[in-house]
Amino acid sequence: MIAEIIAAGSEMLTPFRQDTNSLYLTSELNALGVVVAFKTIVGDNLEHLMSAARIAISRADVVIFSGGLGPTEDDLTREAVAGALGLRLRRDNDVLAGIYKRFAARLMTMPPNNARQADVIETATILQNLKGSAPGQYLDTVAGRHRKIVVLLPGPPGELKAMFETECRPRLKQALPERHMARRMLRMALIPESQVDSRTSPIYKQYEDVETTILAGSAEIQLHFVCVKHTQAEAQKRVNQLAERIEAEMGDAIFSSHGESLEEVVLLMLGMRHNTLAAAESCTGGLLSQRLSAIPGSSRYFLGGAVVYADRLKTEFAEVPKEMIATHGPVSAPVASALAEGIRRRTGASVSVAITGIAGPTPGTGPDAEKPIGLVYVGLAFEGEEPRVAELNLTGDRDRIRFWASQHALELLRRALLERA
Amino acid sequence: MIAEIIAAGSEMLTPFRQDTNSLYLTSELNALGVVVAFKTIVGDNLEHLMSAARIAISRADVVIFSGGLGPTEDDLTREAVAGALGLRLRRDNDVLAGIYKRFAARLMTMPPNNARQADVIETATILQNLKGSAPGQYLDTVAGRHRKIVVLLPGPPGELKAMFETECRPRLKQALPERHMARRMLRMALIPESQVDSRTSPIYKQYEDVETTILAGSAEIQLHFVCVKHTQAEAQKRVNQLAERIEAEMGDAIFSSHGESLEEVVLLMLGMRHNTLAAAESCTGGLLSQRLSAIPGSSRYFLGGAVVYADRLKTEFAEVPKEMIATHGPVSAPVASALAEGIRRRTGASVSVAITGIAGPTPGTGPDAEKPIGLVYVGLAFEGEEPRVAELNLTGDRDRIRFWASQHALELLRRALLERA
The domain that contains B248 carries what CATH number? Predict the structure, then answer.
């Protein structure tokens, strides 16, 4: 049972826009036991769309279109799919009345073009759009002697998701053979993909009924497990067995055993220990604080801190002695340590983290002039303990160095909190 | 002259990964006067890949593959394209020797599988890979009586870009009719797309030889102009004429007339006025500082500031009176004003910005309990002037409210700086 997803819209054939609906649709189709074998992006061109529709219907069992259901002349998915299936369009009076009403409710006259949104492929079921005016369409039909399910969904992601959930998923679930899929994700930070693979592959290869995917993301490695069985309990049991064996092998390197982000895990650990956190950031300029504060509820454990980009502010907000900065340079272990301790004291937090480094592209100045781009110091301070500092040598451009520095800071913090379990 | 881009790789048919090479390739092909009409994503499956290759070669003049050139059994692009064109693969001895040498230089034995990377389609030109081991391939051939250009590029973006630039673009440029394309982008923040369209369409519709695209992005509107002429000067002149007329119509709403980001423009304006900036952020938790400090060279004008997430820090770092917070609530105009003035004074900056608001999903507490999620106050303070405050009522989820708040802060700052030109 394979699927093809077709995204219609010329804007997705420019350098500026990308189809993103297919990620959501793939996840939903996978959960129904359907593998996505092809994705096609095609412009607002009837001939191209019809050819793409014909090819997809011939090679896939389930074909999902997104976009091209609007009222303009560029919206051609209805015509293309009808043409590809050799079916006609009929104007649906109920849909038309609904569109009239939408305009009337806003005291507007319906432009004649909008009537096109009421064109429905004969034999198609109409899918209600609760978030917009273009209805979707659902066909369970036969083409070339094979059963084909063809679905037309609107392009705006909010409309597409709402329609898929309430109108499309239940129909697909009923139409497709029952399948039970369990998924789980383990996440690790700052560990090479090759090391993860060499340590985990002897384990996951023993689980042939679980599909394992290793993905290297931004400064983290993800292990995805998927298993399909006759019952949900069976599928979940196999996934959990494998996950537990991998957790035993990788130990503390795994920061998340159910998909949580590193920020979420750190905040959770702070909460469990009744700790509060503050940050002083130089080269990351607020990135670490931004990542932490993006998590809902973070204000209970994350107090804030200072963006000490200018050296003067390192003294003003974190009491780093001026002479220390002049002697060692702002990018140095003593300054990282003093920054961490100073911001902790000033904010009254029980734990603090400080980051100072050279993100580039231009090198440091004064005592930092000879230091390499990518040199970063992370300081950690716990109430009643001596602060400690880690030296990092990061590579890549400014964005990468800044992100990896924030990732290292979170991972060092997580490991320090683990020691205090 | 139309192109199709095919991305090969099963990971791009999962919910976790997306093809991104096609954005770069589209931009490059457009610059050569080639329109991208189809994009296809296909997994590591010989039958599927060969079918996709056959279809693309039949419907497009230029077909560019990315991925599937590695040494593993899943790397099937060579076989698929040879099959689709009815050509054979030959093992190239020079390429093979090169791969042997790469391994020898690392004191490793070449695994037999890697020899597959030396398989070249007969009649193809080999494209050197300066950043990896898989060579590319370039075919200028005839299929179905039409001239077809077929290019095989490696999947890793760094390898693909380097190979395209040095090995592929020059060949395409020579093979394709000479075209001269000029592009330009205008950017506007916080203005509805419909307003931009209704004010600019009477102008850009007069320039039929310039293709105008309006894109609504994250809290900004972009106007893209593209023009193709016989000479570069002619094309540039038309694009500039149109851009200038649109600039005259939209005036100060345009923050960027050559594509710069809002952060870059604000930093540039601060520099021209010999101003320095500091920020105090509550609900955005460092996002605004992070955006500013992400720009190389920002440290000359952006000093930093404080993330005053906890109320106590509003007093500690920006001297907001405790009683003011207790009376009005942290999300209030008086607090925004005091935060802006306080952070300016404490950092010694000449200009400052402060953000306080309710990002959700949970409502505020104490005096803020009745205030709606999305209520945000932005304070601006200039040395020697009374601070001023703008009240915003934003919609959407936490991420959106935070991003829009930072965007409003930057745009308010830009307009305030404009007044002081």
Answer: 3.30.70.2860
Q: Which of B40, B304, B308 sits opposite A310 (nearest CB)?
A: B304
Q: CA-nearest residue of chain A to B345? A: A316
Report the alpha-carbon distance of residue B407 to residue B421 in Å, rounded: 21
Co-location of B298 and B336 in the same domain:
yes
To the nearest whole percent, how much of chain A has pLDDT over 90?
A: 79
Exposure letters B160-187 (e unless 16+ CB within 10 A, then b): bbbbbeebbeeebeeebeebbbbbbbbb
The pLDDT of residue A135 is 93
- How confident is residue A111, by pLDDT bands cut at 50, 70 and 90? confident
Write out pLDDT tens, residues B318-343: 999 999 999 999 999 999 999 999 99
A324/A231 same-domain check: no
Q: Find the domain containing B195 and state its range.
A: 180-256
Two tokens, residue B59: 């419907």
Tokens 């937090």 belong to which residue?
A: A349
Please check whether residues A248 and A380 belong to one and the same domain: no
pLDDT of residue A261: 95
Last residue of a domain, one of B196, B230, B256: B256
For the stretch A264-285, what's the b/e string if a residue is b when 16 or more beta carbons lie within 10 angstroms of its beta carbon? bbbbebbeeeebbbbbbbbbbb
For A52, A282, B198, B312, the CA distances from A278, given in Å and listed in that order, are: 54, 14, 48, 12
Q: For residue B73, give the 3-state DSSP assignment.
A: coil
B361 and B407, same domain (yes or no):
yes
**Residue B38 sits in a domain of what CATH number?**
3.40.980.10
Structure tokens at B37: 């009409």
- Across the interface, of A13, A290, A313, the residue whose CB is closest to B286 is A290
Q: Of the given ranges (A94-108, A140-154, A254-268, B327-341), which has the lowest mean pLDDT?
A: A94-108
CA-based nearest distance A378→chain B, Å: 17
Q: Which CATH number does the domain housing residue A340 bear?
A: 3.90.950.20
Nearest to B154 by CA among B67, B65, B218, B220: B67
pLDDT tens profile A148-190? 999 999 999 989 999 999 999 999 999 998 888 888 999 999 8
Q: Which residue, A150, A175, A200, sits at the end of a domain?
A: A175
* Strand B2-8 versus strand B62-66 pairing type: parallel
Kindly provide the b/e burial profile for residues A217-245, where b requires at least 16 CB atoms within 10 angstroms of the residue's own CB: eebbbbbbbbbbbeeeeebbebbeebbee
* B43: nearest CA partner in chain A: A37
Query: CB-based contact (8 Å) between A279 and chain B?
Result: yes
Contact residues for A324 (Cβ-Cβ < 8 A; gap 6+): A334, A335, A338
Tell whether A286 and A299 lie within a shared domain. Answer: yes
A1, A62 Cβ separation under 8 angstroms: yes
Note whether B72 and B88 are same-domain residues.
yes
Q: Are residues A231 and A303 in the same domain?
A: no
For CA atoms A72, A73, A75, A80, give the dihedral sign. positive
> Is the pLDDT confidence value at B217 over 80?
no
**Identity of the amino acid at B325:** I
Domain count, chain B: 3
Q: A1: which 2 tokens?
A: 């049972």
Residue A160 and residue A299 in one domain = no
Pick B290's closest partner by Cβ from A16, A290, A348.
Answer: A290
Residues ≥6 apart with Cβ < 8 Å to B71: B111, B113, B114, B116, B117, B133, B134
Task: Give the Cα separation of B293 and A283 in Å (integer).
Answer: 8
